[in-house]
Design goal:
The chain has 9 helices and 12 strands. With 264 residues, it is α/β, with parallel strands linked by helices. The protein has 2 domains: 99 residues, Nucleotidyltransferase, domain 5, CATH 3.30.420; 147 residues, 2-Layer Sandwich (Nucleotidyltransferase, domain 5), CATH 3.30.420.40. 40% of the residues are buried. β9 and β10 form a beta hairpin. It is globular.
Length: 264
């Protein structure tokens, strides 16, 4: 029996086989697994989408989750684990949905990250950390990112950025349309900057945007369409589709694709 888990920066979503998807505010993956495996002893395979650095099925770290160098296989010896970065799995699901072999998924939720498929293959990099667009330098901020730097894109264009700016300014805002004008403008600039980098570097047929912030602010899709020509390489946008994700829980869908295809 399979268990699928999407561990994001704010929520943990899980599904056992084709049962109902359940969302929890759970921060302790070990405690969660102990409970769910005890109550469902037939589970023998676990696919995990993780919002952070993963290599060889080991969770290395995450800017928004307090986990380091976690080898779940050593703790649950009778379980087969397949674990990958959440955006790698999201773009895998998006690739199947849009039937595209050259696609980039840019997701804005708690953080901002990207997954890239080129010529049908996930671009992973030497340590499976390709696509970490949120940690490219953008502007200096008066506080630090979860990665330890103070100039990341994620500090200007993410759900966590909205909260950090609210705390820093001691103001009560939690939504994009509540941001002060300068911070709002920086959010949009950071969005265009990150989109243009991905389009220019990877030359996809489709740029698909998803994540909670995009879900709640669908106007961002049209904003990028109207303004991306000022930022990205022209030849790379001539035949480019810029679309909003049609998938609910794409990283979770991606875990199913991963277990089905044994990609890792």
């Amino acid at each position: 029996m399979n268990l699928y888990i999407d561990m994001g920066g704010t929520y943990l979503r899980y599904q056992i086989e084709n049962q109902e998807i359940i969302t929890l505010k759970e921060r302790d993956i070990i405690s969660f697994l102990k409970k769910i495996l005890k109550s469902n002893p037939k589970i023998n395979r676990v696919g995990i989408s993780f919002a952070g650095m993963v290599q060889d099925n080991i969770i290395l770290s995450a800017p928004n989750i307090d986990i380091k160098n976690l080898d779940l296989k050593s703790l649950f010896k009778n379980i087969e684990f397949q674990i990958d970065n959440d955006l790698n799995l999201a773009v895998l699901a998006e690739s199947r949905y849009w039937k595209s072999k050259n696609i980039v998924a840019l997701y804005i939720g708690t953080g901002i990250g990207a997954g890239v498929i080129s010529d049908g293959e996930i671009i992973r990099g030497a340590s499976n950390s390709a696509g970490e667009i949120g940690h490219i330098p953008f502007q200096k901020a008066p506080f630090e990112c979860g990665c330890g730097k103070d100039n990341c894109l994620e500090l200007f264009c993410s759900g966590s950025a909205i909260k950090k700016w609210a705390n820093y300014l001691n103001q009560n805002f939690s939504k994009l349309d509540e941001l002060p004008p300068k911070i709002y403008d920086n959010f949009l600039k950071a969005l265009l900057y990150s989109s243009s980098i991905l389009i220019t570097l990877f030359n996809p047929n489709i740029l698909v945007l998803g994540g909670g912030v995009v879900e709640n602010n669908p106007f961002l899709i049209d904003y990028i369409r109207k303004n991306i020509s000022k930022y990205a390489l022209k030849t790379n946008i001539d035949n480019l589709q810029i679309v909003k994700s049609e998938l609910k829980n794409a990283p979770l869908i991606g875990t199913k694709c991963m277990l089905e295809s044994n990609m890792l």
